[in-house]
Amino acid sequence: MAINTVTHVVLTGGIGSRLWPLSRKTLPKQYLELFDGESLFEKTVARNQDVSDKMIVVGNIENYKMSNSIMSKFNIPFTHIIEAVPRNTAAAIAFAAFASKPEDVLLITPSDHIIEGNDAYASALQQAITLANQDFLVTFGIKPTKPETGYGYIEFENENVIAFHEKPNLETAKTYLKRGNYFWNSGLFCFKAGKFLEELEKQEPEVYKTSRAAWSANNDGFLDYDLSLSIPSISIDYAVMERSKDIKVVPAHFEWSDLGSFESVYDYLVQKGHPIDSNRNIVIGTSMHTTFIGVKNCILIYTADALMVLQKENSQEVKQVYQQLESIASPLL
Q1: Cα–Cα distance between 241 and 24 in angstroms, integer?
Q2: Distances in Å between the alpha carbon of 188 and those of 110, 229, 271, 272?
Q3: What CA–CA distance (Å, rounded) separates 263 from 271?
Q4: Which helix H or strand E contains 156, and what residues bound it?
Q5: pLDDT tens digits, one per residue of 99-109
Q6: What is the pLDDT of the chain when averaged over all its residues?
Q7: Could you count the other beta carbons within 10 Å of the beta carbon of residue 55?
Q8: Where are the alpha helices (DSSP H) in the chain?
Q9: What pTM was estimated for this model as a whole?
Q10: 8 A C-beta contact, residue 113 and residue 44
Q11: Residue 297: which of 278, 307, 311 has the closest Cα?
Q12: CB neighbours (10 Å) of residue 314?
């Protein structure tokens, strides 16, 4: 079998609204140097350097300078695609596919995940690349460690996907955990550029057509605002992965977190030796002396213009605070 070029595609478009007030539109979570003094974006690039021959960064007009600044630390040539307006992951990945040769294998990774266990990660990637070379669209499934309501799930049998499921309520998540043949949906993908575009054209012709028009008119990687606005905003899961017949899932035996909530940030920081008091309360963002009395498992998040105190278990509710601030066009975003 011919060995095709592997291109690492990094998606940098997220805002990280569940990590407000640390994560802001002007400094989203993937650029925060909170993790061993490095940003998640930097860790993502470093982690995939050895497995890929090329690199594409898909970002937006608000964050591309931050991406360029981090990429300057690496001696890697890369293609930068800059969206004028966010149109979700189906379009973002389509741009990367249009910028590639049809036989190129694309390894799609978000820029804001933590992955540990290099050997297990490399092994999963090799398995995925092999399947991608056989014209499958590959997703990576994470074995659940708890009944998590913040992730989508993949129902599977061996490497075959039975169904994708939206974020469940707690009872459903407990059922998934008990059944044992459900993975968390990691948001990592691997497939040939041409195969993805073929499936996108079949399943969502409007996304395919409008993305192609926007890409064709790109100016040195910058996409046109009006052409971009006409692209339907649809995720890759809904547009392609949930509807294609050619899907495979690779089980991930590496440690993974999308750090999508303060609960997962808390778990990560505590594991890394972040200071914690006797009632498992922690402070993020300041070295100012802080005392917690009568509360357990709390997180105090400090920034120059906002303070937040939350119960670790209520981390998913931070998004509601963000939406509330958004509704009044708050400058705190």
Answers
A1: 30
A2: 7, 26, 24, 24
A3: 12
A4: strand 153-157
A5: 999 999 999 99
A6: 92
A7: 20
A8: 40-48, 64-71, 88-98, 118-133, 170-179, 193-203, 205-216, 225-229, 236, 262-271, 318-327
A9: 0.90
A10: yes
A11: 311
A12: 14
